[in-house]
Amino acid sequence: MGELMTETQQSPLPAVEGPEARGEPVPGGVPGGRRGSPDGQEAAGILERSRASVDPELRRAVESLPGPLRRIALYHFGWEHADGSPAAGNSGKAIRPALVLAAVRALGGQQETAVRAAAAVELVHNFTLLHDDVMDRDTTRRHRPTAWAVFGDADAVLAGDSLQALAHQLLAEDPHPASSAAAARLASCVVELCAGQHTDTAMERRGPDDVTLDEVLAMAEAKTGALLGCACALGALYAGAGEEDVEALDAFGREAGLAFQLIDDVIGIWGDPSRTGKPAGADLMARKKSLPVVAALTSGTSAAAELAELYRVPYRDGDLERTVLAVERAGGRDWAQVQAADRMARSLQHLSRAVPDPEAAGGLLSLAEFVTRRSM
Amino acid sequence: MGELMTETQQSPLPAVEGPEARGEPVPGGVPGGRRGSPDGQEAAGILERSRASVDPELRRAVESLPGPLRRIALYHFGWEHADGSPAAGNSGKAIRPALVLAAVRALGGQQETAVRAAAAVELVHNFTLLHDDVMDRDTTRRHRPTAWAVFGDADAVLAGDSLQALAHQLLAEDPHPASSAAAARLASCVVELCAGQHTDTAMERRGPDDVTLDEVLAMAEAKTGALLGCACALGALYAGAGEEDVEALDAFGREAGLAFQLIDDVIGIWGDPSRTGKPAGADLMARKKSLPVVAALTSGTSAAAELAELYRVPYRDGDLERTVLAVERAGGRDWAQVQAADRMARSLQHLSRAVPDPEAAGGLLSLAEFVTRRSM
Question: Locations of Polar residues compositional bias (chains A, B) (predicted)?
Fold first, then answer.
C-alpha cells in the first residue's frame, strides 16, 4: 500500500513547507471553509489525545494474544524489538482511531464510549499492513524490517489473522448499543480492503496499456478510502447518528482518503526524499501504477506513449528523469492535484451535510487537512 | 492440518469397516452408553439435514463477496471449477455446522435460529484451511488443487481473510440475543486456531528429540479441538443455555476433537490408502510430528531412539516399513488408541453433565461417534 508506506515513514508531525508556502495552489486545502491551524498543531493535538485514550485499549488487546502471536504483534506495533525487549514504539500516526473519536464528537456523542471501536479500526488497519507487506514483499515499515522479514511469512500472516479476530472480539464484547452495527460495517469494510488489495496485486502484473483510470481510482478507494470512511461511520454510529449521517460521514472519510492517496502518489514522484523517507522516484523505478502514472498513461498524448514504452521494461539507470518528465508532460501531476482538490471539496460537502456547524466539525476538518496537506 | 486433509479426502460417507467389525476395541466408541446406529446412517442423516439448511446461508455469504474473491472462495468450496464454471460441489462433510445445530437441539433450542451461527463456524473453518494450505504448501484438498496452487498465495490469503470477515459479519447482523456472545467466542477461537497453526509450523522445524507430548497435545487441541468445542458452545449459547452448560459443551467438542485427531493420526500411518485418499505413510515420509510419532519418540524405548534416528534425515526409499514398525514398537499406536478412548470418555462425561437425557444428546453422540469411528 503506497499510502501506508509513505504515511508511516514520515515523521508523525512534519513541518509544513508545502505548496502553500511556495505560493502554489493547495490541492487538499479547504476551499473557503474553516481552516485548521496552518501548522498542523491542532491535528497534532487531536492525534496525541486520541493515542492517549486508545493506546491502552489497543495494547491490552494485543497483550491478550498467546505468546508467539503476541510477540509478532508487539514487534509490528513497535512496542518491542525483534528480540522481545521493550521498544520506544512507533506505530504510526494512528489517524483512523482519531477519526473515529473525532466523528463521535462531531455528532454530539461521548468520545470515551467509542474507544474500543477506535482500537478495533486500528487493529484492522494493522492486520492489513501485516498481510499486504507479505504479498507486496515490502521489507521496511516505520523504519524497521517488516514482520515477515523478521518472523517469516507464515507468522506474519497468522499475526494478521489474529489482529482481525481481536478487532471483531473488541466490538462483540462492547456493550454499546451501536457495537453490532459497527461490527457488521467493519467486517464489510475488511472485504472491501481485501478486494482492493487483490486488484492492486493483479494490476501490477498487467501491462501499462491495460489499466484504466476508473480501475485505479476504484482500487484506491477500496484500499485507502474504505477504512477511513468506515472509521468516520463508526464514530457516527457510536454517537447514535441516523443512517443518513452515518453514510455522509462514510463518504467524507472515503473522499478524504482518496485525496490523501492522490497527494501521497504525487509526493511519491515529486516529493522531497528527505521528507518522504523513500528514495526519489522509488514508485516509478518499481513501475508502480500509481494514480498520476495511470492518468498520464491514459492521456492519449505523445508523452503517454513514451511513458508506456518506458514502463514496458524494468527500470534502467538514467531512466528516472525521463520517466518523471513523461508523467508530468502527459498531465499526470496536474490531473492528480486537481482530482485531489476535487475529492477534498466533495469530502467537505459530505461533512457539512451531516455536521453543518463548523465548530462541531472542527476536529474532523483538522484531521482531513492534516492528511492531505503534506510537504510536496 | 493433518485432521483436515484426511477428513476431506475421504468419502463423505465411508462404509464402516473399522476395528469393531474386526473385533478390535473401538477407541472412540461410546463406553456402555447409547450408541448411534452402527453403520453411521444416523450421523449421515444429521449431516445431510444440516447441509440442507446451512448451505444456502453459506452460499449466500460467499456470493456476496466482490468478483475475484468470490471466484476463489467458490472454487475453494467446490462450487465452481477454476475456470468459473459450476461444479458439483464437494466442500467436505461440514461436521462443524452440524455440531452447532445438534448442540442447539440437545439443549432444547430451535435449530433454525442458529443457521447463521453454523454458517459462521464453517466460514472460519474454511478461512483456516485456505491459510494453512498456503503455509503448509499443501497442494491438494478435497481431491483438487488447493486455492493457492490455482490462484497464487496472495489471492488465497485474501480469500481466507474475506471468509473470516464474512463469518463475523453474519454474527454481527444476526438479531438473535446470543449473537454477540457467540461472536466474541468465535473471535477468541480464531486466535486459538492461529496459535495452534503457529505451534505446528514451528514444531515442524524442530528436531525429533525436541518436541514433548504435552506440546503436541496442546497443539492438536488448539488446531482441532478448539473449533469443534466452539461449534458446540455456540449451539448452547443459541439455545439460551447457562454459562456452565456452554462450557460443558465446549469441553465435549474439544475432547471429541482430540479423539478425532488421535484417530486421524493413527489412520495416517496404519490406515488403508484406498480409504484415506493419501498414500500409505505420507505423514511419516514427510517426517510429520503427529501424535503417535511424538508418543513413540518420547517413550524412552530403544525403538524411540531408532525412530529419532530415522526422523533426523529426510525420507529415503525403503525407510517406510522400518519407520512404521519403530512407531509401533515404541508404543505410539497403542498410546494413541488408549488416549483416543480416554478423550472420548471424557468428552461424553462433559456432554452428560449438560445433557443428561440420552435421547436429547442423541444427535451430538452420533456426530461424535461418526468422526471418531472411522476405518482403520
Answer: 1-12
